[in-house]
Amino acid sequence: MRxxxxxxxxxxxxxxxxxxxxxxxxxxxxxxxxxEEFTEKWEDLFFQFLFQSFGQQP
Length: 58
Prior knowledge:
- The structure is a single chain.
- By secondary structure, the protein is an all-alpha fold.
- The protein has one domain (13-55).
- It contains one helix and no strands.
- The chain has one helix at residues 35-49.
- It comes from Chryseobacterium carnipullorum.
C-alpha cells in the first residue's frame, strides 16, 4: 500500500503504468554498453524521437 502517490509525467505516449510507447523507433543498444551509455541512449531516443509525429518538443 502506497502512502504517497507517484507523479505521472505529462509526456505523450507515457502511460500511468510507466509503460512508454516508442512507436517505430529503432532501439539499437549493444548489450556491452555501460549503465551511463545505456541511460544516455534511452534519453536521446525518448526526447529526440518521441514527439516527432506531433512536431513539437515538451
